[in-house]
Write a structure and sequence with these properties.
The chain is α/β, with parallel strands linked by helices. The chain has a single domain, classed as TIM Barrel. Helix content is 42%, strand content 12%. It has an eight-stranded parallel β-sheet with strand order 9-8-7-6-5-4-3-10, covered by helices on one side. A two-stranded antiparallel sheet has the order 1-2. The longest helix has 17 residues.
């Protein structure tokens, strides 16, 4: 596995990141251990979790399964969403950030978090307060780097400017949704991230399994699949245009002797500005299929074909800007 710098930092992370949302949910602890060990054996050193995944259980399992090689792993987690019923049990206030970090450190059984990320923008808290609290955690040695997830382009820019003005730790990473069927970050988030030197670690590069080719145009998703439980996501994805993208992915996979998931992952992995796509796995077999993306790249004709079928539609002002610069 190759390694890439996380944004403008000197931190080197593997070209794939292991996501642990399945831990304690779709994968029990034994399976989670086997998955993580296999990922590390393959050269992976980047693991991402969040306090909200299974209400802390994912963090607890993650902490235990990486215990033997904690120092070799770049460990990321997130805060923002509710972890209790109280008025301060969610959000990006100083009170919640400090308490959430302390709780994550206990669950992960570690003295520090390598990358601590706000899971989503919080309209109710000034970004100055959020960044000041995160800066305190960095200065205390409890957090090494900070990042954001599910931010818009202007929110990234606003945050970086505040950090510069106030002399605070700044975001070094953004974690957005990105795949062949969800390319919206190309409008603002990717350009802002490249401009400001942020690493980009996309979540759901396979669109919740939609891009693996296992779903049908005619039938509803099987009950035991992620798409069945994510009804709103299925409604957004199950369109003729997006199934056309899946068909193109499958065509390229057949011609290359690859899995459709490997084609979709390869496209995300090698997009300009992307550092490490986050892949999850219910078991080692699924992880091994995804690890098959290592060591090769899509050819130009394949990239052109995927670009053609999945190209973003441009509304104002993006369409006007594109025409003006053509």
């Amino acid at each position: 596995m190759e390694y890439r710098k996380l944004g403008r930092t000197g931190l080197m992370v593997s070209e794939l990141c292991l996501g642990t949302m399945t831990f304690g949910n779709e994968a029990d602890e034994q399976t989670s251990k086997r998955v993580t060990d296999r990922f590390v054996e393959a050269g992976g050193n980047f693991v991402d979790t969040a306090n909200v995944y299974s209400r802390g259980i994912s963090e607890e399992i993650t902490g235990r399964v990486i215990r033997d090689y904690r120092e070799d792993v770049v460990l990321a987690t997130k805060f923002r969403f509710p972890m209790g019923d109280g008025p301060n049990d969610s959000g990006a206030s100083r009170k919640h950030i400090i308490s959430a970090c302390e709780a994550s450190l206990r669950r992960l059984d570690t003295d520090y978090i390598d990358l601590y990320q706000i899971h989503c923008w919080d309209d109710s808290t000034p970004i100055e307060e959020t960044l000041s609290a995160l800066d305190d955690l960095v200065r205390a040695g409890k957090v090494r780097y900070i990042g954001c997830s599910n931010f818009t382009g202007w929110q990234i820019e606003r945050s970086v400017r505040v950090s510069e003005r106030e002399g605070l730790a700044r975001f070094d990473c953004v974690q957005p949704q990105y795949s062949l069927v969800v390319r919206d970050i190309e409008h603002e988030v990717l350009p802002a991230s490249r401009e400001e030197g942020l690493g980009v670690i996309p979540w759901s590069p396979l669109a919740g399994g939609f891009l693996t080719g296992k779903y049908s145009r005619e039938d509803a998703p099987p009950e035991n699949t992620r798409m069945a439980s994510w009804g709103d996501t299925w409604k957004r994805h199950a369109t003729p245009e997006k199934f056309d993208i899946v068909d193109r992915v499958c065509e390229i996979a057949n011609s290359r002797g690859k899995e459709p998931a490997q084609i979709a992952l390869s496209w995300v992995k090698d997009r300009p500005g992307v550092t490490s796509p986050i892949l999850g796995a219910r078991n080692v077999e699924q992880l091994d299929k995804n690890l098959g993306v290592i060591g090769w790249s899509l050819e130009k004709r394949e990239l052109d074909s995927l670009e053609e079928i999945s190209a973003l539609s441009y509304a104002y002002p993006y369409d006007m800007i594109a025409r003006a610069n053509a």
